[in-house]
Design a protein that fits this description.
By secondary structure, this protein is mainly beta. 13% of the residues lie in helices and 46% in strands. A hairpin with a 5-residue loop joins strand 9 and strand 10. The termini are far apart.
């Protein structure tokens, strides 16, 4: 006959095992994280890491072992800010997901990101600011009619106008010189990414 202590221990083990099963199943279902390519702009201010299985939300991106500031992540492309003064050269770039899974790739930077395929999605061709740095103007193709979302370094801006090929948004105060990641998100969920260089 089992003692009360044995029965309580068996019940505790069953409880812990039952709680762990969904977590283990979720981990098994998570797609494998893979870094496939790394590019940076000519100014060496923004780096794009492309791959799969990055997952939603924040991930940790390191360049040569140094953590970078993440700007955007859509699950397959992460944009991160490079520290001022980063020199062109060979770097080990690593992405670590919230669950601790990581992958890395050796890259020679800078390499400009490839132009997106034409397709039916939006495309950014240029981005610029006015002289007093209050308005961001993004020109391109297939932005669609009506309201779109404009993001600068992952921060959503107030949209001022959109005619389908030119979008204007209010630039927040205090934007620093250098390269910035720009994204335009169309109403149907399709997005385009580009860069803004402020001298």
């Amino acid at each position: 006959m089992k003692s009360n202590r044995s029965r309580r221990a068996a019940a505790w083990v069953a409880l812990v095992a039952g709680a762990m099963l969904p977590l283990l199943a979720a981990a098994a279902d998570a797609p494998k994280l893979k870094v496939e390519s790394v590019q940076a702009n000519d100014e060496m201010s923004v780096v794009w890491v492309q791959g799969k299985g990055f997952g939603p939300g924040a991930v940790r991106v390191t360049l040569g072992g140094k953590a970078l500031q993440m700007l955007t992540n859509d699950g397959t492309t992460v944009a991160a800010r490079l520290p001022a003064g980063t020199s062109p050269g060979k770097y080990l770039v690593a992405v670590t997901r919230a669950d601790g899974k990581s992958d890395q790739l050796k890259a020679v930077l800078p390499v400009a990101p490839p132009a997106p395929p034409e397709g039916n999605g939006p495309r950014i061709e240029a981005a610029a600011v006015n002289a007093d740095r209050t308005v961001l103007t993004v020109t391109g193709k297939r932005f669609g009619g009506g309201s779109v979302s404009v993001l600068l370094d992952g921060q959503k801006l107030q949209m001022l106008g959109n005619d389908g090929t030119t979008v204007q948004a209010r630039l927040p105060a205090g934007v620093v010189d250098g390269g910035h990641a720009v994204s335009v998100l169309r109403a149907d969920g399709q997005a385009a990414s580009g860069t803004l260089a402020i001298p």
